[in-house]
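Data availability (excerpt). The following record was deposited with the supplementary files.
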Amino acid sequence: MPLTEFELIMLDDGEVALQRSGTDETLVRITFSEEVLDYLDGKHIEVAKSMMDAGIQTAFELNEESAPMASDTDEKRNILH
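Predicted structure:
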């Protein structure tokens, strides 16, 4: 599977979005309320980055869990002595 690069962008409406590098297709958007923006005092980009990183990591872990595992008999057939 080819390595996909992602980038965080700030949309005109103030949302933080995730997209694949080189495309304009938005994959995920994060919107912070005014109350949260005030509380974060300009640090919402760092929070959004952490949220996206955690989400991507979780998606990869879930994908690995659902990948078929080799059975014991398959492993024995692949071992050459």
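Summary of structural features: The mean pLDDT is 84.
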